[in-house]
Amino acid sequence: MLAMDFVALPPSFTATAVAVGGASAAGAMVGSFLNVVAHRVPRGETVIHGRSHCPACNATIRARDNVPVLGWLLLRGRCRDCGAAISARYPLVEAGCGMLAGVIAGAEVGGGDDALAAWCGHAAVAFVVVAWSLLADRGHAVSRTTVAIATTLAALAAATVPVLAPLPVGCSCAAHVAPVGCAGCLLASLLGAVAGWLAPTPGGRSAQVARCLVGAALGWQAASLAAVAAVAACVGRSAGRREAAGSLASLTAIVGWHPLAWAWEAVCRWAVS
Description:
With 273 residues, this protein is mainly alpha-helical. The protein is built from 11 helices and no strands. The chain is globular.
């Protein structure tokens, strides 16, 4: 038998692969939960307890059939008990959330010890946007109280966790340094939320609340990027599709957070030079 020498993967590549893989798996599980939210909330049902069940025969879904994406594929899109068709929307949402979480992790993995905190914060905002979009697609409007609570929590996280600090309001400092303190972060979050709420773009209320949340978490620059993306995504679409595309366009600002920060830093340096 011949001995084989295996070439070790570079640590950076290995770390990225592990982070993206783990984040994708976690994101798919969150997507499975968001499917439950989108199904139960419009019906006034609780999402805190109670196992998932088939809407047709009310049979409890077995644990092995509840694995994100894989469970649907093994069942061939049908209930194990009654044979009723299970919408392909469920695995698509799970796979989409997994991909979204993986992309965000890939962008954050170079952030050192703060990478996990950055991923948790930015992925949480992205998942809330997805949840609101799914609810809007089911005809369920997110309440103002829910929007206010989510926006406030995003602003507080941005003000208290340095790695989640939004981009500064102006060009008084570099974007990645952001030595503006808690008050400066809260001001940036407030202006970001207002900019996201007032941006005159298509997409309906679901897109508006999504931009408001993104602005509070990342700053007015990200809200502006989301607004531009909403316009591009909504061109030539029907009213219903414009609403979905407009709210999901906010994810562009989250996924493109690092390029946006680098671009803003370049603008700041040019402006103060």
